[in-house]
Every structure is written in structure tokens, then in C-alpha cells.
Design a protein that fits this description.
alpha/beta, Rossmann fold, seven-stranded mixed beta sheet, 11 helices, 7 strands, about 20% strand
Length: about 240
Amino acid sequence: MYFLKKNFKALNIDLTDDQAGKFILYYQMLIETNKVMNLTSITDYKDVVLKHFVDSLSCVELLPDFDIISKFNSGASVIDVGTGAGFPGIPLKIVFPEIKLTLLDSLNKRVVFLKDVCKELKLSDVIFVHGRAEDAAHDKSMRDSFNFCVSRAVANLSTLSEYCLPFVKTHGYFLSYKSEKAEQEINSSKKAFSLLGGSVSLVKSFSLPDSDISRTIILIKKNMGTPKIYPRKAGTPSKKPL
């Protein structure tokens, strides 16, 4: 528990014993389920803490330029697109229990795992959606519905923006977690941002605590509604980025 709390403290996050216990249980469920389902290639406890749990909360590095903590604490609606094993959505929910969280993934057995985790961790106000982002973003109950969309999915920023911005309310935000400096990717995605109604509001590059692991958080603000034609049909955003 000390290693867990110490690394969150490096982000100025003081975990309670209850929150730390939830992370440990989450880790145990992740590793046990990973034996029969491909959830993560990272299994060492310290690596999971740093590269999954702490990394999921690294969005607080946007402070002081953008007060994401107060927005999350005030009950923001958040959708995690392509959540996989629950990152960053579930760690965000553990630390900021007031958020209204939706977890979206295209693989049903991962969604079942996420339901089990949230039940065991007693996380409430979480909605689980099995489906592709290209389809879900055209669902009237989800489109233009969230204060924040977050994603750690491994995809081109232009493609991710087409998946994610349609979910976001006007004047809301898409938070993209990137594993390295993303200046070139941002520059090549400017056309996509413009077409989708967004623009880059803030970019923060940093290293995870006690490591040389580089990360970049890109904050994209949605300035106007995304045209109804986006996202394009399943598979097209990845094959033909805007």
C-alpha cells in the first residue's frame, strides 16, 4: 500500500485507505482475470500501479492551467471510449467518486469484467456500454451528452478525435492520453479538429513519478456541434483518418 500511496502522492493525490484498498482489489481481479482473458501485458504490481493506475490520474498534471479536479469533484459526466480493462475510467472513479462514468468497449467479455470490478469495488453511478464508438456516437442518448470524453486507446489522434468528440457536449472536453510527445500528431490532426468542432486547448508533457516514462495529455475543447456525418461508418476513421 505504501508504494501505491507514495506514487499517487507525487501527483498531489492523497489516497484514503479505502481508495487504496479498492486499487489493490482491482489489481488482484485484473491479474486473476488476465489468466483467461487478454486484458493487459503489464502484470507486475509496481508496473500496474505506475503505468495503469497512476497514469490514469496523470490528467491532474493539467493543473494549474486547467482545474480538472474541481470539475470532476462537481459531478462531471465522463465517458471512457475504448476502456479495455477500465483505464483510465475506473481509476478516475475511485479517486473522484462524484463523476458520472460511462465505460464503452467493443468486446463484451471485457464489459462483463468491468461490471464485476465495479460491483466488487462498490462503485456506483457507472454505465456499461458494449459497442463500437462509431455506432454508439450516433445513439441520441449518448451523442453530445458528456462533459468529458477520456481515452487511452492506441490510435492516431485524428482517428481518436472522430471517435470521441461526437460524445462531448459543446464547451466540453476530450482528454487524450498519449505515451510520448505528440506535437507532430497534433499538427497532422488540425484538419480533423476543425471538421469535428474542436480545437486544442492545452498540452502537457511530463514523466510519471520516479521514472523516465514520458507521457502527454492533450486537452481538446469542443467549440461547436460535430456534424452528423461523424463518426463515419465502423472501420473508416482508422483506415482513412480525416
